[in-house]
Amino acid sequence: MTDAEQVARGILAELQNGFAEHDLAAVTTLLDDDAVVFGSAAEGLDGEQSRAYVAGMLAREGTVRWSWDRVVPVLFEPTVLAFGVVGTVGFDDAQGHPLGVRQPFRLTCVALLRDGRWRLKHFHGSVPQR
Q: Is 120 left (phi over 0), alpha (psi -120 to 50) or beta?
């Protein structure tokens, strides 16, 4: 695994942990102040909208769970990391049992290194149409 992929997977692990704990502060700490977050259900074109979108996702019944099958860095500079991901997404109940069927998931991210920590500037996740 390359250094870039390790960094990307670390960011994704922090994201998953924040969602698993329903910890809004932990998840929003991963977002840059003016992050752009696009999901299957809505979009956030600025930091405020993006944080509201994340808050809505955390308020849903169950816990969003991703699996990250392929993580492909496309740019890795000292303070910028861009990567694409292919995997699946679904929701689990409080006991960790799946709620419904997992769906294919595609993701692109741009992360910036600020104050010694990687923060998501751009997150675009979607469930592809079949």
A: beta
